[in-house]
Amino acid sequence: MTGPGDMDGGGGRLAENIMHFARVLRRAGLPLGPGKVIDAIRAVEVAGIRRRDDFYWTLHAVFVNRRDQRDLFDQAFHVFWRNPKLLEKSLSLLLPSVEVPAEDEKKSKPASQRLAEAMFPDRGDRPAKESGEDEVEVDMTLTWSDRERLSGLDFEKMTNAEIAAAKQAMARLVMPVATVPTRRMRPDPRGRAVDMRATLRASLRAGGAIALRRKTRRELPPPLVVLCDISGSMSRYSRMLLHFMHALTNDRERVSSFLFGTRLTNITRHLRHKDVDVALGKIGTQVEDWSGGTRIGPALAEFNLKWSRRVLGQGAVVLFISDGLDREGGEGLGTEIERLHKSCRRLIWLNPLLRWSGFEPKSAGIRAILPHVDEFRPVHNLDSLADLAQALSRPAGPRGRHGWENRL
Amino acid sequence: MTRAELPGSIDATVDLLERGDYVADRSLATTLFLALKMGRPLFLEGEAGVGKTEIAKVLSQTLGRRLVRLQCYEGLDAAAAVYEWNYARQMIEIRLAEAEGVADRARLAADVFGPEFLIERPILQALRPDTAGAPVLLIDELDRTDEPFEAYLLEVLADFQVTIPELGTIKAPEPPIVIVTSNRTREIHDALKRRCLYHWVDYPSAARELEILRRKVPGAPERLSAQVVAFVQALRAEDLFKLPGIAETIDWTTALTALNALALDPQTVNDTLGVLLKYQDDIARIRGSEAARLLATVERELAAAG
Predict the structure, then answer these.
(1) What ipTM does the predicted assembly reach?
(2) Closest Cα to residue B201, out of B14, B63, B24?
(3) N or C: which end of chain B has fewer CB within 10 A?
């Protein structure tokens, strides 16, 4: 391990290396601009680098912005401050989810060469490269090989006509949830509350009797969380549903999307890509359980444990899209769906399985879910976004105590 | 109150926190030191009950600074967070002016929207100079507010200034020490985080938690504290909906001490589990055989450690 003494090459070398380190992190996907680099150099000047762990936490304080960046930072730090050249080489191994385009790879080669020269100006880097490379490769495999990736799903490209139709459908979409009043006000002549500030300003302008200005509560659609089943029995709808989720994410604010089959994947960030094909391409490579079995219970348990407190915080509405057919016969599903129901404003279940109208809840999974949903929307013919939007736009009933158990 | 100097090194920061009975690990002390030295807000994220708010309190107490606390909630707006005009007084002033026959409207407007009619709320208070040094501004549970307020904070946190249309811009002569906390019930926007130094406050190690107990519950028997810490640490490895934080550990030890318990036994654990776990599912899961099993493991480990 290189001691702190090697890092402090005197003069501007340390600053330069911090800059290179930031560039490595940026390529690894951390959003670091030049401002952050300047901050980091200032921070290191302020804190000093007498101890290696202080140096670590100093850079950590500036470069890391989210909890999930910590592992990445940790690995990059230990590799880079030992030998930055190795990191450059193994970056693609370290980060299977971040694909570096081929031309970038080519461009970065001379840069890594320069970096190595900057770090070790008076030492040949060949021996280090020979002996170190094996070590790193073993390291990376150990860390990342458990991430099996099935990238088989190939989405058909959406035609322009389809995109136009989808946009129209989205424009017409009315969620069966009314807007909710926020605690912010807007001016409104028929509002209930008096806007004192506006009143006083107006009266100073006009004089005489003080005419009251009024305000009312601003209304907003509540946050929306989409939980979508992508198991085998749902596979014919997967593409359409993903397009729906993409359109929804780009149509309004505060939408979080999750896919589940045998495990749960958060795809919110991918869906924020404006281009639907890019977004779906990314999802196709990240999600690992396309058209497999369904374990609704465990998937919901994971959502409840890890995500519900982060995305259901502000009175969110949950759109649960599934056929309710569970591989494990609804085991543990009841309690999880009940918890989900209790932690959101409204739980809407959209069931596309039912292509006939004489629906009877026979499967164990369906019977477990039904008592805990506020809104049940069977869709008998779900082949286009327009059908989906139409199904969701029907007016909603009140939130009952017993869900949908006895209403069918 | 004498004006305490800001710590000059990371070691001094650790000492400073320790004087306030806050047992911090080195990573937190480093980030805090940098925040103080660079005049940047400190953004603390972590589970509930790991001591995020406590840092601000300890800082204000050990540095002898005034603590200005802004508790966030949904719909928090400028009138509650920054400033508001005293409308009742303004109305009276206008009526008086009219009675006296003041004709100059522009002068009246300038009078009515003057500093004496301004009610200062926490953020504006924190920008005001103080003889003891710039105050500590604690913006607690920022995730409870909505995005518009977060956007408003950008100006405050970047330049430490507030713009009041009628009065102009008020700038802090000396930037306050800003601590922002979040429980992560939603993600805070990157633009705000970028202006802060970030730290994820984790659950403490067993040794650190024991040290915290020694300071916070000095009356607790040594053996009981050791058992409590080992039990809670074991509990955090379980698959629970809400893991117990340090606050719960302290509460539980206080409760057990009040019950005159000298050591943990399955019965006591079952009876007092509600202090530690706050969800019925979690309690049902741990109560009984699971608690007994954890306790037995803890006993064995403690015996092995001597």
Answers:
(1) 0.74
(2) B24
(3) C
Angstrom distance (rounded) from CA B241 to CA A154: 37
* Other CB atoms within 10 Å distance of the CB of residue B200: 21
Residues of B in Cβ contact (< 8 Å) with A65: 190, 193-194, 198
Instruction: List phi, psi (to 5°) of B282.
Output: -65, -45
Token pair in block for residue A389: 């939007």
Burial class (CB in 10 A: 0-12, 13-18, 19+), A275: exposed
Tell me which of A98, A127, A144 is where a domain ends. Answer: A144
Distance (Å, rounded) from C-alpha A23 to C-alpha A17? 10
Domain that includes residue A50, residue range: 4-144
Residues A136 and A74 in one domain: yes
Q: What is the pLDDT of residues B126-149, one digit of tens each?
A: 999 988 889 999 999 999 888 889
B107 close contact with A: CB closer than 8 A: no
**Both A210 and A245 in a single domain?**
no
* The pair of three-digit structure tokens given for residue A341, joined into one six-digit string: 């129901």
Verdict on whether the full-model pTM lies above 0.80: no
- Are residues A190 and A274 located together in one domain of the fold? no
Q: Is A313 on the interface with B (CB under 8 A)?
A: yes
Q: Is A139 in the same domain as A263?
A: no
- Residue A189 shares a structural domain with residue A68: no
Same domain for A252 and A387? Answer: yes
Q: Is B279 on the interface with A (CB under 8 A)?
A: no
Give yes or no: residues A293 and A385 share one domain: yes
Q: Tell me which of A251 and B177 has the higher pLDDT.
A: B177
Distance between CA atoms of residues B211 and B229, nearest Å = 10
